[in-house]
Design a protein that fits this description.
By secondary structure, the protein is mostly helical. The chain has 22 helices and eight strands. The strands form two sheets. It has a six-stranded mixed β-sheet, sandwiched between helices. Strands 1-2 form a two-stranded antiparallel ribbon.
Length: about 575
Amino acid sequence: MATKDGSEAALKTNPNNWHRWKNLLPDVGAGLLLCAFLVPAGMAYSTASGLPPVAGLYASIVSLIIYGLLGPSRVLILGPDSALAPLIAAAVVPLSGGDPHRALALAGLLAIFVGVYLVLGYFLKLGFLSNLLSKPIRTGYLAGLAVVVGLSQLAGLLGRSSDGVTEPWNQLTSAIGRVARGDFNMIAALIGGITIVILLVATRLPTNLRLLGILVTVGGSMVASAVFGLNEMLPVVGALPSGLPAPALSGFSWGDVIATAGPAAGIALLAFADTAVLSRSLAQRNGVRVDGGKEMLALGSANAASGVLGGFPISASTSRTPVALNAGARSRLAGLAAGLWLLVFMLTLPGVTAHLPSSVLSGVVIVAAASMVDIDGIKGLIRSSRIETALMAGTFVGVLVLGVLPGVVLAVVLSLAVFVQATFSPYRTELVKVAGRPGFHDITRHPEGRRIPGLALVRFDSPLFFANGQVFVDHVRDIVDASPQPVRCVIVAAEGITGVDSTAVEHLVQLDEYLEKKGISLVFAELKGPVKDRLAKFGLADRFDRGHHFSTVESAVEHFSGQS
């Protein structure tokens, strides 16, 4: 079924039939429109990464062509991304010493490392690592990146260089000081401000009209600059070098290799997480499945090729892909066509950017950064969970205080901490009978419920392992001790216990021996077959024989209720 913007119909083509002739004209046309968007966006994100503008076009060309040939998704557009820009800049700028050629070489090395990590991840089946960034962590991290990226563009927006200032707070105070002293280019700031306003208005237009915003600002600013001779009055991008993407890997040492290897791991994780989320959302929308492993392989190959041929790390983006879809893209051929159109642009029209004000690119980046802030997601977290809100806020502050690269580490650590906390101390409760309702229910949700005389019904929602075995034991003992009547049998509603390790087995034996001394039986209801097999392998087949297992909680209660 088609939607208003036509993107549903665009995705109904079989991904394996991207070469069909009927897709040729729509995809080539979509590629041309996409190219018009990618030229300013690619240059803007390259500038935000601390690199020459042309590097963004090289990265776009290479990644589009490689993914067009290898990618598993029907329509997914790779290229420079605002979320990766601050990480690239943090890794490259301190090592480059202000030398743009060295910066390009380091960025290429960084992209190669990203590609190698992702390709290795494909062969080692590590795609699950993209799930390390939970929603609150991801929301806070991207919001922090948005602030970092936006503040990094203030100097360019004012028509001035950054003067080596990299800390967000210093960038803000420096910009305020310049405005207060009048030390800024009024024309550049005016053009940059107009760019931001037009692009923000464009975000409220239908998706298929948003491309007009960037075309109007970029085209209009170049025409104004040429007509009124603004080149002598404000910084401009200048003409781009003509030619094909070429290797720029030279002039780095083993120290540079070591220095870029670590940041590349964080960039690889974020790039794949972004790409996987977008790929899955598009696939789910259209009732198809995408191979996450092949997605990782294609993304890794595109990054490695980008690094070799003068580019830098890339990923998928929620801004470029909708542009392609709403331009009529039907298959991966659209991305391939866009890469070829960019190649034609580089060979025939590199001088067209000679009159493009640099502050326009800063405005493009600032608006792109603002789009990384998920306002609805933030509101939802605040409404639903204090803990997740705190995690989001902690990640946000961590990015601003520690920096974007340590922020990746912090995000992963916090995500793992949430997982560990949930696993070490899972939800657990006592079950009771509720009048008028079948089955047995959580006593915390139904305090009016009635305990079954002589029985203690226990629920534990986690696999049993070394870290929570004692928690399980304490939970059972607390329920037994708190029972208003003597307990003859503990029935564990074990549907949530999906695994057990050797340490947890020791805890189970100790618990069973403790209860046995008090004349209390320990039995399990709804325990999974593989967990029973594990208990048998640990030598507990006799201790927990068939008489200790029941198919349902109801059958266990019925059995023991009949005993006196």
